[in-house]
Structure prediction request, 263 residues.
Amino acid sequence: MKRLVGILSLSLVLLVGGQYGTAEEISNYEVLYNQGIQEGYINSEELSLDNFEKNNEEFNKVYEDGKTENIIEDSLSYSEWLKLNNYGQYSNETVNEQPQGRGWASGFYIRRGDVLVTNGTSSAGFLGHAAIANGENQVLDMPGSGRTSRQMSSQAWVNEYKGKGWVRVYRTSSGIADNAARWADRNYFSTNGTANQNIFPSYSITTQLYSKNPSYCSKLVFQAYWFGTGSVPVMKNSSGIVTPYGLMDRFNANYRPSLIHIY
Prediction:
């Protein structure tokens, strides 16, 4: 956003040519591993096939939890789900430090509209987690199954995840970011912009990307920058599921936020 629902078998049902769900059985992860390399998500010098197979035992637990809790649609195969989650990988990026703002959190200033992505947790159905700063000292997110949207201080949010992994902070131009933050706040927390929450969406991972209820963490952020920025082409016209690890790829190049800090 975790219980073990069974160790993943080394047998995945894939259809040669990229279609899933029928036909030829592949007896190991080599096909998925090579697909991840070809698509640029996996660096074979940094991740071996053996370690990829070991990682998938944990990935499969997250996937199976999502199925068990009915927050992943039944039609989504493990292979398709893994690809949506960038094969469990996150790209290496150069940090462009920009310490402006008023939302102090562990030696860095988080600003309205900043996007936060972490690998410090994996809720049922998703690898990683995403959020948006909806104020100078507040972060808004959808924390996982059975829960609704929540607002907490920047420091508290960072503290919750940075000890378990990394937290990456992304920033785009202030006018666009401010509009996205305001939209997120007024549509996912408080209709009148106060500290009193009166919006309570349910949590579910569905392909209905432009509906606000149910919703999930990275969908909230996508919608904030899609709906909140008016006619400015900030986001790509997208469909399906937006994962935390795939969120940055949904921004058009001219508006893609820069990585400005890693906790």
Q: What stands out?
A: The chain has a mean pLDDT of 85. The first helix runs from residue 30 to 38. The two ends are 18 Å apart (CA to CA). Residues 79 and 235 are 26 Å apart (CA to CA).
